[in-house]
Amino acid sequence: MSSPVHRVSLGDTWSRQVHPDIDSERHAQSFDVERLTNILDGGAQNTACRRRVESIIHSDPEFSGQDNYFMTQNERYEAAMRKTFHTQMLIQRLGWSEKESVYAHRALSGDTVLGVHKIFLKALRSLGSEEQIAKWEPLCKTYQIIATYAQTELGHGTYLQGLETEATYDPATQEFVIHSPTITATKWWPGDLGRSATHALVLAQLICSGARRGMHGFIVPIRSLQDHTPLPGITVGDIGPKMNFDQLDNGFLRLDHVRVPRENMLNRFAQVLPDGTYIKLGTEQSNYLSMVVTRVEILLGEILPHLQKACVVAVRYSVIRRQSRLRPSDPEAKILDYQTQQHKLFPPLAMSYAFHFLAVSILEFFQRSYSAILDRDFSLLPELHALSTGAKAMMADFCIQGAEMCRRACGGHGYSKLSGLPSLVTRVSASSIYEGENTVLYLQVARLIKDSVHQLQTLTQSGADQHEAWNQTTVIHLQAAKAHCYYTSVKSFSDALQKLEDEPAIQQVLKRLCHLHALHGILTNSGDFLHDGFLSGAQVDMVRTAYLDLFLLIRKDAILLTDAFDFTDQCLHSALGCYDGNVYERLFQWAQKSPTNTQGNPAYEKYIRPLLQSWRSKL
């Protein structure tokens, strides 16, 4: 077998010694961990490239994140901006490719800003003409401007047709007048908007020649390029504290009859001529292309890594933590040896792999279809939309549940921010709402599933209004969509296994995870399988037995399967999940860094001392 996976020490002197309880888990490997890492990375050359980028990032003190847990919101923002700035300097100096930039983002655990600046670029490439791309892309790539993507409003999110911001064309001046007509039309939530952005791609309802033409994108300057102050007609700021993303300046934006040139409307799929004539070059769905692009990319880049990291932390901690005895004469057992702990952690671990292969398959389909869509061949867009929509909703839901289960599986220490788990849970929780609220996304998938419309047809045939009939059956449609999405994750996992015939050891261990993933889906929905007659009670018992039998087989490879994700210690930023397993030493050392342990206690003189003295005087 090859050498252990890549890792970077956090610099603690005692971390040079690997804890024997985790070291023993890595002996007698049943498969080549390094080879599995290569498969997950898409090739050994990608693994080498990623590690090279990580080594550069982690060796530079400008990128240190050890004190993040003790920072204020302002300090987090400034630190993230510092890292973003130095990352861009590295990209320019070393000539890093887009792939290497993505690896840098992973190395920094996304603890950066200006991520929505990149979404702006993707939207520009998807919705802008070649002339517009030629004008704006160089300005963005060289950071002569900082742009954000302003779609969500205070009153509307997923329902894009309800967006209230207006862009009215004035043929006399050949300008669009961008306006927020109501308080609920205020743009709300866009990242990088609160403090950083100089420009925004504002999604607004186009009005020209007296007709409303639907949602279109408009590039709007919002801050001065000289002193960064808001431009006339612009009200902009930060929306305040959130569950997570303290480093990110999510903002609000109101526009008071702000004028922009006609050329600032992105016009790959629609144009407004100087006289106000509207020309449609695409479909109604073409304006949603930038959202589809973003959904596809966040599957592997933003949603899944949080579940993978949570699994790494929880599984590693579970072979260090010893609690109670399996037999009275035995030493205290590793908690991962308890079946209940395996029941908590192995399904999320299996999902981590299942969702990886699902996301890869969707990304491959996207890459095949994207160029055709840009050439106005929209035949593949509905399927791409359905695949990305369903995968985003399902992966977000299960990654949130799985990360939270991993946190709970670590007991009291999992409640500490120093474990890294609370921040993983709260960060991935945002994925249920950004880029589309999950319930709405599931229902979009349900509209494409023929079998789920039977009851809808029954109601309609009985005389019910079609729209009311849909509303009365949405719970059933939701269940059908979720089942379909889960099926696609099992199928893509199974398809990926067939491509690993030349890697029998890896294929065998992943096959166990695939089976566990499938059986877990059946057991958690056994009522539906019984109700609809797909399984008998005896067959459900057989499923449960097979499911539990897999635990013992997966248990011996659990650490190796999490090692294969190849997250560095700096990337995990967890006292519980470091590669060496020195949990208690690291947890105690990190706690000493809390400012409350080095600063005075003003509350003592103000309140504690008087309180103590008030009682003493009566004794």
Automatic annotation (TrEMBL):
It comes from the Eukaryota. Residues 444-613 form the Acyl-CoA oxidase C-terminal domain. Its main location: other. FAD binds at T152, G191. GO terms for molecular function: 3alpha,7alpha,12alpha-trihydroxy-5beta-cholestanoyl-CoA 24-hydroxylase activity; acyl-CoA oxidase activity; FAD binding; fatty acid binding. Residues 32-146 form the Acyl-coenzyme A oxidase N-terminal domain. The keyword Metal-binding does not apply. Transmembrane segments: none annotated. One of its GO terms (cellular component) is peroxisome. Keywords: FAD, Fatty acid metabolism, Flavoprotein, Lipid metabolism, Oxidoreductase, Peroxisome. The active site is at E435 (proton acceptor). It is found in: Peroxisome. Its cofactor is FAD. One of its GO terms (biological process) is lipid homeostasis. Belongs to the acyl-CoA oxidase family. This is Acyl-coenzyme A oxidase. The lineage of its organism: Eukaryota, Metazoa, Chordata, Craniata, Vertebrata.
